[in-house]
Amino acid sequence: MGSGGFRFERFLLDTRERRLRRDDEPVEINGRYFDALALLVHEQGKLVSKDRFLEEVWRGVPVTDEALTQCIRTLRKQLGDDAASPRFIETVPKHGYRFIAPVERAGHEPGPPTQTAAASSYSWRQFLLLGGAGMLGAGVAGIVGGLFYGFAGASLPQQPGMGAVSVLLVLTCLTASMALLGGAGVSFGIAAAGFASGRPWRWSTAGGAAGGLVVGAVVKLLGLDAFELLFGRSPGDITGAAEGLVLGGAVGFGFWLASRGANALSLRGGVVAAASSGAAAGILITVLGGRLMGGSLDLLARRFPGSRLRLDQIGGLFGESGFGPVSQVVTGALEGVLFGACIVGAMIIGRRSLGGNG
Question: Which ranges of 97-123 does DSSP label H, i.e. alpha helix?
């Protein structure tokens, strides 16, 4: 054949045409399983770890250990292999798998096929579903955050009933809208990393950071222009591109952490990893003088003295006379936890709906 590949026993694995043949008869095998077999055959005689399957075949997309087990089980069935007495794929308990049959090169030297092939198996449907799921998760985080700031910040002693409810509704809608926009940029940025080849953690982190940067810059620009137009003055340095860059990158890194190793696709493990990464980003942003939602709301309240919004009650919990530096750090960490955990948790759930094989 004109294309390169590998021969073993009665099989020809054509890595250029992405076909598996037995005695010149095609063998049905889906794209993801083909990538797994190509990796095993290319590394003939060497142990291929579970983490390597996850990084090079599933490309960091969260899957359970059962998905890999099912993949190997199907490959053995297609090859006529037996797990108890293997001729092709040997199990190395708790570590991975090894291809043990003699392999010959067919045609020209093809080189490692798995990274490009894996990227090509990532579909637009996966991209849209993962990005959309993350965006919805961010909306949930925004609603929870809006309720928290709404209950803490509604200060209307003359009209405690109607005024407090109005502040609560406005803050919840505002925070949910901002979270949806930011979540859209970060989530679709992370989801786009599935199309790239190379190291998954770099692309996932870069995708989340780029999405957060773009959306943060646009939202800040439009927000400042809107205040200038409606009220004749700007509220000042509210959250924007820099904060979006750091928080988006942290969520992308948290998604990669949730996608690798034995905890892949574990909802609890993924949420904890993303929450930890988001909390670290929230603390870093506020320590360096940036502002997330809480800091931006406090800035607006102080910039417009007639505002009914006050966040001093939060500061009182930490012995501060107002919404001081400690309050900003704590609320920044909480916002990072919410944003990261909800986005990554929703993306894991969305990935599950596609099934283990994507």
Answer: 114-120
